[in-house]
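Consider this record:
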Amino acid sequence: MRFTKTIKTLALIAGIAASFASNADFLDFQIAETPYGGEIITADKLNGGYTEIINFDNAGNFTAVAFASMNQLFGNDGTANSSQVGSVVGANYNLYATFSASGRVVVPGEFGSNSSLKGEAGSFSLFLDKNQDTAATDLATLTLSNTADDELLGFSNMLGENAGLLYGFGGVFDFMFHNFELTAQGDTYFVSPMPFYMSVRVDGDLDNIPLEGEQFVTGDVSAVFDVPEPSTVAVLSLGLLGLGATRRRKS
């Protein structure tokens, strides 16, 4: 059942993405893992899993908060996994992200979906957890435990092009955050390019959910860095690539 749903999802998004031109690429970045027993490596995507709470009101609006482990780094256009690129993430240290969004529900949805979520505001933050012990103790308020050793690497409070599409067999989301800014700690972790990329795209999948009350959601999530593009459809095409790579990893 899960496999069938995945095939349908990928086929549908492929059709959407193929209908429009896009030059979205996996852009390389270098990170210094030397403080954690590794080396300077080249990657182009972060990947992991997320837990999220979405609240729907009775007026067509939603708010969402999520906690995501990002303990896989990919390279070679998203095809080489952490061990293949020489990363020690997940073994010697952890990466995690928090993100939020608020906006409106559209029924029927965009791009032929049953319904869609259109974010109007949001944020994304990326952290490094040296002791590998941070957990979300209260997801609804993004209350985290064991954060004393954690370092904020970068953040964005500017939500750009985005789409969350819900179909009868599941859904996908793809959100771009602009003005991504590295902290001082982030400058020592992300060592190339300099200056660093100004945008980060966050995409993933989700199961069907009712558009009412508080909903608990889990799924796969990916993040890539990019330069700003004006097209929401370009975001969707990159979401196809990220979701496809994630599914190949799980099969």
Remarks:
- The two ends are 13 Å apart (CA to CA).
- The chain has one domain: 2-250.
